Amino acid sequence: MKDLKELTRAEDQVMQILWLLEKGFVKDIIEKMPEPKPAYNTVSTIVRILETKGFVGHKAYGKTHEYFPLISKEKYTRFYLNNLIKGYFNGSFQNLVSFFAKENKLNAIDIEKLLEELKNKDHEGDH
């Protein structure tokens, strides 16, 4: 996973759509984008950059290419969150939770649910 790179905002937007579609042509990606829609060439360039970065593959139909993700959304999410925690929270999940609790984004009920999930995960490992 070390060879993964963080996506730019535009690349992320295209990947989110490709993960949703599972495969599609540039026009299909553009169709799912919000207004104002970017130019065809812009999206085509982003898709080719994603292909160079190893996120996207394609199947050729004459001069037209159908694109599909090579990296799962889950794998990228794990990579992105690990980088976020390393970069902003000294590698500590506890610091991350603390931050959101202080920002009032997590309340006691949310924290209890998190703890419950962690306990259940620990018990699953026991079997």
UniProtKB/TrEMBL annotation:
<dbReference type="InterPro" id="IPR005650">
    <property type="entry name" value="BlaI_family"/>
</dbReference>
<dbReference type="GO" id="GO:0045892">
    <property type="term" value="P:negative regulation of DNA-templated transcription"/>
</dbReference>
<protein>
    <submittedName>
        <fullName>BlaI/MecI/CopY family transcriptional regulator</fullName>
    </submittedName>
</protein>
<keyword id="KW-0804">Transcription</keyword>
<dbReference type="InterPro" id="IPR036388">
    <property type="entry name" value="WH-like_DNA-bd_sf"/>
</dbReference>
<keyword id="KW-0805">Transcription regulation</keyword>
<dbReference type="Pfam" id="PF03965">
    <property type="entry name" value="Penicillinase_R"/>
</dbReference>
<comment type="similarity">
    <text>Belongs to the BlaI transcriptional regulatory family.</text>
</comment>
<dbReference type="GO" id="GO:0003677">
    <property type="term" value="F:DNA binding"/>
</dbReference>
<dbReference type="InterPro" id="IPR036390">
    <property type="entry name" value="WH_DNA-bd_sf"/>
</dbReference>
<keyword id="KW-0238">DNA-binding</keyword>
